[in-house]
Amino acid sequence: MKTLAVALSIGAASLLSVGALTVPTAAQAQAVITIQGPPPAPRYERVPPPRRGYVWSPGHYEWRGGRHVWVRGVYVRARPGYAYRAPEWRENNGRWEYNRGRWDRDGDGVPNRHDRRPNNPNRY
Fold first, then answer.
1. Most buried of the four, 10, 28, 52, 55, by CB within 10 Å?
2. d(CA 61, CA 91)
3. Which parts of this chain are annotated as the region Disordered (predicted)?
4. What is the pLDDT of residue 115?
């Protein structure tokens, strides 16, 4: 019985150490959330009056805990020289992908270090 307890504790410790190595950090790329069904229709939301120096980020559904959860719209502080891309769901080969809100410098929809290149291969 004692050897079983020791074996289980060693196994649990090794699993925890592997999990500690794979914790995402802020420097890593965003994970793409992909699901099979589409999100529900967006809710109607009254947009408050414009605020100087801010951009409206509309309400949207996020995937949390295995279900869609509505996130209310908010004002986000504007960044001069950047365009704000609102969060969105896109269908891709019968699956739905969630793209978080992001800032883009050149308007091609790809926020990256190559934004000043005129012939960006990632344009759409």
1. 55
2. 14
3. 97-124
4. 57
Residue 6 in domain: no
Domains in the chain: how many in total? 1
- Domain presence at residue 4: no
CB atoms within 10 A of CB 57: 17
Domain enclosing residue 92, as ranges: 33-124
Rounded-to-integer distance, Cα 54 and Cα 42, Å: 22
Q: Which of 82, 123, 122, 88 is nearest to 104 (CA)?
A: 82
pTM, two decimals, is 0.58
pLDDT in tens, 20-29: 333 333 334 5
Classify residue 89: in a domain, yes or no. Answer: yes
**Residue 80 is encoded by which pair of tokens?**
């001069």
Contacts of 104 (CB under 8 A, 6+ apart): 82, 83, 84, 85, 110, 111, 115
